[in-house]
Amino acid sequence: MNDKIHKGDRIAKVIARAGLCSRRDAERWIEAGRVSVNGKAISSPALNVEPSDRIIVDGKPVSKEGSEPRLFRYHKPVGLVTTHKDDRGRQTVFESLPDGLPRLISVGRLDLNSEGLLLLTNDGELSRHLEMPATGWARRYRVRAYGHMEQARLDTLKKGITIDGVKYNAINATIDSVQGSNTWMTVSLSEGKNREIRKVMEHLGLQVNRLIRLSYGPFQLGHLADGMVEEIPTKALREQIPAFFKKK
After folding, report:
1. Are residues 212 and 160 in the same domain?
2. What is the mean pLDDT of the chain?
3. Active-site residue, 164 included
4. Radius of gyration of the chain (CA)
5. Could you tell me if 34 and 53 lie in one domain?
6. Is 117 helix (H, G, I), strand (E, B) or coil?
7. 20 to 30 A from 77, CA-CA: which of 52, 53, 205, 222?
8. Residue 183: CA count within 13 A, CB half-sphere
9. Is 66 among the domain residues?
10. Rounded CA gap, 1 and 105, in Å?
11. Run of H or E residues at 61
12. Tens digit of pLDDT for each residue in 163-190?
């Protein structure tokens, strides 16, 4: 395996590569005083480190040994929070994973009441790469909402919408069926702000009562059973995101 720390890498990038968290979370950990380098606590992420530096996070050394980036499909059930530790004591995605997996972080999140495809990885840099809007990857959802809606009004979302000062980019929403007081839709977006679909639909007068993520870019939920995890083969991963591996 190759050394994970390259000469002059930023400290947050090194922590993310080790699969401990995303680069953004690593910056927060540093500012919170959870990281030390060569025995000295640091408070700013504006630090480049060398392969010989000893990095400690929460009292544990950060491994310098590189590991191949891995990506997993997970069928998240309703009722789990997408975090490693919940201050309110709710069950988390990571507490529910089967034994034998490496330490994983999520690519984006699904909220407590959402279900479906959640991508998990052992590499914080890969997580960040897949979350960036620049990838242009669509996230596709099956959505059930209480209320009546005209397709013409949903079509206005293709131009984007601003709600309470927050600008949401283009959303493609298609009515699939109406069952009693509920409308089933397929919704696709490429950015995915916090609770975006729920907030936009509420603005239109609909109350989302079921939200299932079907796909994230080229990766599909398919027939993966509720609560199950399946690794995406390395060959397929490299084929789908060649730009990321060229940087490695």
Report:
1. yes
2. 89
3. no
4. 20
5. yes
6. strand
7. 205
8. 20
9. no
10. 21
11. strand 60-61
12. 999 999 999 999 999 999 999 999 999 8
